[in-house]
Amino acid sequence: MRKIDDMDRKILRALQADGSLNAGDIAEKVGLSQSPCWRRISRLEEQGVILGRSVLLDHKKLGFKMVVFVRIRLSKHGRKSLDEFARAAAALPEVQVVQLLLGEIDYRLRVIVRDLDDYNRLLRDHLINLPGVQEIQSSVLLDEAKNTLALPI
């Protein structure tokens, strides 16, 4: 993998600020001509530095009023158990993030639901039935001072 240089960082910062920019727009912002800019973007994608582009949606305006952080302790901790749980949890559409942790809790999930009744249904019908679940703790997000996917590059 080729080392990331200052121009690559400028391109990545521009893409983080607005993923809808095309190579010409980015080239203009970073002071590079379009063809070399496009080649750099392509190389960063091939190297897996750029994983993809997406659109950020306002979940509240779409009726998803609750974010819940779910901490899960498993009954078994072998690789097969961990992988099985992670696959099953990731398959639930309400689950946005599945994170394996080091410490007392094995997994943390970020779950988005319409309301408390929706979370109760998800909990009773799906979360408690995930493979290997021993204990579940839930915390409801009240407010968010910062929420970004941008890296400090």
Question: What's a quick, concise take on this entry?
Answer:
This protein has 153 residues and is α+β, with helices and mostly antiparallel strands. It has helices at residues 6-17, 23-30, 34-46, 79-90, 116-125; strands at residues 66-74, 95-100, 107-113, 133-140.
Structural features:
153 residues, alpha+beta, Arc Repressor Mutant, subunit A, Alpha-Beta Plaits, 2 domains, 4-stranded antiparallel beta sheet, 5 helices, 36% helix, 20% strand
Give an overview of the whole structure:
By secondary structure, the chain is α+β, with helices and mostly antiparallel strands. The protein folds into two domains: 6-46, Winged helix-like DNA-binding domain superfamily/Winged helix DNA-binding domain (Arc Repressor Mutant, subunit A); 66-140, Alpha-Beta Plaits (2-Layer Sandwich). The protein contains five helices and four strands; from the N terminus they run αααβαββαβ. Strands 2-3-1-4 form a four-stranded antiparallel sheet. It starts with 5 loop residues before the first helix and ends in a 13-residue tail after the last strand. The model has no long low-confidence stretch (mean pLDDT 96).
Distance, first to last CA:
18 Å
Query: So what's the overall shape?
Result: elongated
Estimate percent helicity.
25-40%
Structural class: alpha+beta
Q: What is the string of helix and strand elements?
A: HHHEHEEHE
Integer average pLDDT: 96
What name does the CATH topology of the largest domain carry? Alpha-Beta Plaits
What is the level-2 CATH architecture name of the largest domain?
Answer: 2-Layer Sandwich
